[in-house]
Hints:
mainly alpha; 3-stranded mixed beta sheet; two-stranded parallel ribbon; 5 strands
Amino acid sequence: MAEKKNTAAEEAAKKALEAAQAKKAAGKVQHTYTQVGQQSASKEELLAVTRKNALPYRIAAIILWVLAICFEIFAILLFVHKIEFGFTVENPGWTISWIVCIVLDLVCVIIGSNLWKKSNHLDPASAKSPFRFWLHNNLGVVMAILAFVPFIIVVLTDKNSNKQSKTIAVIVAVVALLIGGLTSYDYNPISQEELLENADIDTVYWTASGTVFHAYDDCSHLSNTVELLTGTSASAIENGKTRLCKTCEARAMKEGGEAVSSGAEKAEEAVEDTLVENAAEAAAEDAAA
């Protein structure tokens, strides 16, 4: 009778486990995979593709930076009253005009710098020269300085403007410079060496949006993604995915560390077994002698 009760309890537990597993499976997104170019490209071919992908962003960034400098020049000319739009010197419209130019200057700097950062993530510079690497990634910061510092210098050295106008102009330009510089700085740059290192992974997964690829299709960042693209990391890079997911990278390092640790333990056990066997053989030989 007790055995029958135990069997019934086991069956109930088994059914509960199956129900829990079914519920978990139902809640999990089933991925649809689309295979993308499995043929590996050489490093030169890969870099050629990344340069091609980045070129439109670089051109757009340069155009916007040129526009930013033009707006700065207009702001200077308006502030020192070298151009007129139907306003008198005393008319507050002069103040509004150069402030509008400074705002447009800032907008062009921010958009241009973000496009430049996007191009650098698609086609990164080499990190062999730290200064050149920093300058290449943060050219937007340099452009922010060029877009506002000359205006500040002109304002401070202008002898025809009153103190109040100069104070307002300097404050507006300094605030614009800080905003432009901070938004132009690349806080997470990627190097060409890192890009090529990431290109050695055999099979990766990515989505249509973003610039990150994943080493695991069950990565937590893909939990709500239905359609996944899959292929070599080189093909992911060719499609604009230039950075390995940090979560996948940490997981790979952890699993690699566990594998190394397990291998070391097995090696130690093998050595101990060998020593024991040798000792047993030596004891047997002594006994026989």
